[in-house]
Write a structure and sequence with these properties.
CATH topology: Rossmann fold
Radius of gyration: 18 Å
Number of helices: 7
CATH class: Alpha Beta
CATH superfamily: Vaccinia Virus protein VP39
Strand content: 15-25%
Distance between the termini: 62 Å
Structural class: alpha/beta
Number of strands: 7
Helix content: 25-40%
Shape: globular
Strand order of the largest sheet: 3-2-1-4-5-7-6
CATH architecture: 3-Layer(aba) Sandwich
Amino acid sequence: MISSDDSQQRVQADVENRARKSLGASSDPIYQMVARTLAQRHPGGGVLVDIGCGSGKLWSFVSDRSDRYIGVDAVRYADLPTQTEFIPFNLDIGKAPLPDEYADVVCAVEIIEHLENPRAFIRELVRLTKPGGLVIVTTPNQLSLLSKLTLILKNQFNAFQEAPGLYPAHITALLEIDLIRIFTECGLTKVQIEYSRCGRMPFTPWHWPKNLSVHGGAFSDNILCAGQKLKVQLSTI
């Protein structure tokens, strides 16, 4: 008979294994997409919480937009920046050990596709965000030409194929409309979609020309959804 402790250890080992398959980092165009969004929508300063921070590569792209950088992840990577305030936590279980309305910006870069319950995850991001603060999530773009053609020819989304480093690391495929619906259902406003402006040409090692990639989702392998938490409404009574 397997004890509850043994079961929990197996679950934790599985989570850590899936986390390490991501190698703790995403591609530069994804971080640049986050940086563009912050430049447009965040006045700067305050606390940025990076949920699923991996090796903390995001910080090198957004360090000029925040005063404090807090990283949360299931595992700590050896090359995490020294200035990171790191919090170990399994993102599939409960609440992160941070207070409500703690951060000015909460980012989750290429994390939601690894998790079991996307709506619960976004609710947790909203809980951590101050009124008026920004929630940013990125994920593979299921509506890119690469993903659509892979689905037609292989009956699988490109980033969710039975391939090394993909499934079972990637388990939750979300469309653009799914992200918009979830953000709206979780009380976020001014919901915005952005694209990575970088995408691989189907079944080749080459990327689309830049003059195509800037025109939208068909030529972008990754998507970003951003939303603002409502500010506290003061009573007029």
